[in-house]
Amino acid sequence: MAKLPPTMMIACPTCGTTNRVSSARLLEQPKCGNCKTALILQAPMPLADEAAFEELITGSPLPVLVDFWAPWCGPCRVVAPELEKLARERAGEIVIAKVNTDELPTVAGRFGIQSIPTLVLFRERREAQRVSGAMPATAIAQRFGL
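The structure assignment produced for this chain is given below.
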């Protein structure tokens, strides 16, 4: 039996319909199944489980910037709006995802996350670069060459 392609859920910016999109099709400008508006991931995507993390990292043709964070972390709350800004500015060029280290400790442990926030850039399924600490969107883009 063939394995289904990795997918993500993207809300339509026009009608709000949630659409299931193969991460491999992100560059093909998928359209909303309801209103046919172009779907572009314009906000950080929270990852609910390890399988979603794996699907995104292995299936995305775009670079993936993962924010390892926790809700109790002050610097994490400072960097969150900066990542939202970066996601809007670089929509269609990069996918920004969020991993709550309290909810997904195995993912955080697998990558040796010892301080938060830690941002890890994945290119072609591999970790390319990482940085820890809160910073503005311009500094994030500069550090990762985005």
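Interim note for the steering committee: The beta strands are 7-11, 18-22, 45-46, 64-69, 95-100, 118-123, 126-132. Residues 41-144 form a domain with the Glutaredoxin fold (CATH 3.40.30.10).
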